[in-house]
Amino acid sequence: MITAVIIDDEPNAIELLQGYIKKLSFVECIHSFRNPIEALVFLKEYDVDLIFLDINMPQLSGISFIKTLENPPKIILTTAYSEYAVESYEYQVTDYLRSSL
């Protein structure tokens, strides 16, 4: 089972991702966060296999978030802004999902 968390400041985006994840028998979303700082605290205590991470958030950008992780799990960046796609691959992300929310 792949354990995952969602980090996104938009409740609708979290709800949409949770809906898709529930359809996958091999992925379990164990927590979601609207505040990336709270997610950092959680990830210091709990290991996860995958993070669905928004790039454009007010408290801490997704790119800055990645830079704080010592041993990052697989990361799928989620955003409505396609201009971040090229930069995101500099951080060895697993994938990039562009949303139209």
Description:
By secondary structure, the chain is an alpha/beta fold. It has helices at residues 11-22, 36-45, 62-68, 85-88, and strands at residues 2-7, 27-33, 50-54, 74-79, 95-98. It has a single domain, classed as Rossmann fold, CATH 3.40.50.2300. Helix 4 (85-88) links the parallel strand 4 (74-79) and strand 5 (95-98). The mean pLDDT is 90.
Q: Structural class of the secondary structure composition? A: alpha/beta
Total of helices: 4
* Unreliable segments of 5+ consecutive residues: none
For the termini, the CA-CA separation is 28 Å
Q: The biggest beta sheet, please?
A: 5 strands, parallel
CATH hierarchy class name: Alpha Beta
Q: Would you report the number of β strands? A: 5
